[in-house]
């Protein structure tokens, strides 16, 4: 493809739907399948969980897949397109060569897991787009180390593309434009879920941020132990100064040093209503010397699933557009404008 | 340049500063010069007004240029780098071949003016990046018609890259990602300026949106007539359902049909304090069927100049990055993530 091409029609890149996959089929992966279901521009053709995968070039049905997964514990039981496998991701990558991009809706436990998956893609020879919704700074840093390998492999990898990091990091990047210098980026999130058991991995990742916990300890907790902890706190997890990759992403984008970025929030595991409105506040000094704050606030009725999966597919579409132009390597949510998927 | 290149280091594109110019030297052009003054990554080397231009590959001094312009009415009097000319833009383009990009801080009067300037660049053989802060839908539509010509000429043109359209349109694009369908995008701006005479062209463009006025009538008004109108309204211009290019830009980006986008605002020409906080509200339906609204609000202490010029140079930097990769044509602020200029 010639590098001298029209770039005006980014959103009309193809009449044929983009074929996409979802790796991981817990709460987030299932929500991703539901987000994709009504889309014209993307067709969901591949998915994997720990015990198996499903692949159908004609498209997978979200309700049917979720039903099988809930009833039998794996997409591998799905007929006729499911296959049981204890190396499900590996097998799916090898078989599903028509997939243009994947949303990695995997819990990052252990903290090196996403980088390991990226390595599998690199080694497989597959070329396409990968999007993750990683949260921790250290996890994104591991991906950054794979930058050159991803580029050589012909993979366009977009990291930190969920809600925060992701949507709110991108909003901070936009907000920063009005200022000559950024003094602080303060991200505060509120999450309300009716039942923590629908997001077992996500809640464990949150617990890992509490004083006295880490990723290993949280991931080793039994459901009963999580339950006991939540009983002590009336179901509330209050998180401050979290290790969140918004900091490294904004630093890489040249917005401000990472220590000016703080992330905290309140998770209510017993109430779908958000305890506080999720927002990002960007404070800086304008060229005239005025100090001010721009604020981006998410509507309370929008769920974590909507604010993670929507942006993830918006970045996947933007990534496919870059990939088709031969642009490979690693980018973050702060560097690319996501594209609305119809 | 090979299309297969590392895209991870978008923000570290060059140790050498980008050489940029500003066309137009009214309130907005002068603010643009001041915004650029402390930047390490961009060097301001070229500027033009109606009667002349200044060009110095070593860089122009903002205070000195503004002083000359205010005292003598044109940058053409600036020594030693000024030249008087009644075809200043044309002459500058021909002479300043080392300029990588221009911010077109020109009043778009008449409404076809920006497209005419784009034509001059196309015909000149110059290759680089152009960024405008156009406001009207019809003006952006004229640029859209030049898309193929811009691409063939090797020009990367980013349109609608000020505050609104621009920063707020991009924020709306981000906000839309959480939703399956967008019901409305409502932009409301507040502008407070101490003295309308510092923004004569901008205020006339605002007046053109009032009932009974149009671009021709507003642009033909004498200062005394503007003064008389503002006396009648106590200095307030209240604008509703304005013809604003946010609508066509969001439609092109696939967010929603243009009739779901509304723009209105209040301009106080006698008070630097904003009469209301500028904001964009994006209302939609999530994949779960919830209706909600994301809101992006600008800090009241940020001026129109900061919210227009900052984003404009952020888009110029992003545009230069695209141009260096051989991507030419026309894009809007809703399609590209602006990059923070240090």
Describe the protein.
- The structure is a homodimer of 342-residue chains.
- The first copy, chain A, is α/β, with parallel strands linked by helices and 342 residues long.
- The first copy, chain A, contains twelve helices and 14 strands.
- In chain A, the strands form two sheets. In chain A, strands 5-4-3-2-6-7-8-14 form an eight-stranded mixed sheet, sandwiched between helices.
- In chain A, helix 1 crosses helix 12 and helix 3 packs parallel to helix 4.
- The longest helix of chain A has 21 residues.
- Chain A starts with a strand and ends in a 10-residue tail after the last strand.
- The interface between A and B is large, with 78 and 78 residues.
- Strand 13 of chain A pairs antiparallel with strand 13 of chain B, so a sheet runs across the interface.
**Helix percent band of chain A:** 25-40%
Biggest beta-sheet profile of chain A: 8 strands, mixed
Question: What's the helix count of chain A?
Answer: 12
Number of strands of chain A: 14
Q: Calculate Rg of chain A over CA atoms.
A: 20 Å
**Which structural class should the secondary elements of chain A be placed in?**
alpha/beta
What distinguishing features does this structure have?
34% helix; eight-stranded mixed beta sheet; 23% strand; homodimer; alpha/beta; five-stranded mixed beta sheet
SSE map:
The structure is a homodimer of 342-residue chains.
Chain A: E1 5-6, E2 18-23, H1 27-36, E3 42-48, E4 52-55, H2 62-72, E5 82-84, H3 88-95, E6 101-104, H4 113-124, E7 129-132, H5 137-144, H6 147-153, E8 156-159, H7 167-176, E9 181-192, H8 200-207, H9 215-219, H10 223-232, E10 236-239, H11 246-252, E11 261-268, E12 279-285, E13 291-297, H12 304-324, E14 327-332
Parallel strand pairs in A: 2-3, 2-6, 6-7, 7-8, 8-14, 9-11
Antiparallel strand pairs in A: 3-4, 4-5, 9-12, 10-11, 12-13
């Amino acid at each position: 493809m010639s590098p001298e091409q029209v770039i005006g029609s980014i959103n009309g890149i193809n009449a044929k739907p983009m074929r996409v996959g979802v790796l991981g089929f817990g709460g987030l992966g299932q929500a991703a399948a539901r987000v994709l279901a009504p889309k014209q521009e993307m067709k969901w053709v591949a998915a994997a969980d720990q015990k198996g995968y499903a692949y159908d070039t004609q498209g997978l049905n979200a309700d049917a897949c979720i039903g099988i997964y809930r009833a039998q514990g794996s997409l591998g039981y799905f007929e006729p397109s499911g296959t049981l496998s204890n190396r499900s991701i590996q097998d799916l990558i090898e078989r599903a060569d028509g997939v243009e991009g994947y949303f990695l809706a995997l819990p990052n436990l252990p903290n090196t897991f996403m980088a390991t998956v990226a390595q599998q893609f690199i080694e497989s020879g597959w070329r396409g787009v990968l999007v993750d919704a990683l949260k921790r700074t250290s996890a994104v840093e591991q991906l950054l180390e794979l930058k050159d390998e991803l580029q050589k492999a012909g993979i366009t990898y977009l990291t930190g593309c969920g809600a925060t990091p992701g949507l709110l990091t991108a909003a901070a990047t936009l907000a920063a434009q009005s200022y000559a210098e950024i003094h602080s980026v303060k991200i505060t999130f509120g999450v309300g879920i009716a039942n923590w058991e629908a997001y077992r991995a996500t809640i464990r990742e949150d617990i890992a941020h509490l004083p006295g916990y880490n990723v290993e300890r949280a991931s080793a907790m039994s459901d009963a132990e999580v339950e006991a902890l939540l009983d002590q706190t009336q179901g509330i997890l209050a998180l401050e100064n979290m290790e969140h990759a918004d900091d490294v992403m904004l630093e890489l984008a040249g917005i401000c040093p990472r220590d000016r970025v703080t992330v905290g929030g309140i998770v209510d595991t017993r109430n779908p209503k958000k305890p506080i409105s999720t927002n990002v506040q960007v404070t800086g000094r304008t060229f005239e010397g005025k100090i001010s704050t721009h604020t981006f606030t998410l509507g309370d009725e929008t769920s974590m699933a909507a604010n993670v999966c929507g942006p993830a597919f918006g970045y996947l579409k933007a990534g496919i557009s870059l990939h088709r132009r031969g642009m490979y390597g690693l980018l973050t949510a702060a560097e690319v404008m996501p594209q609305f998927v119809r």
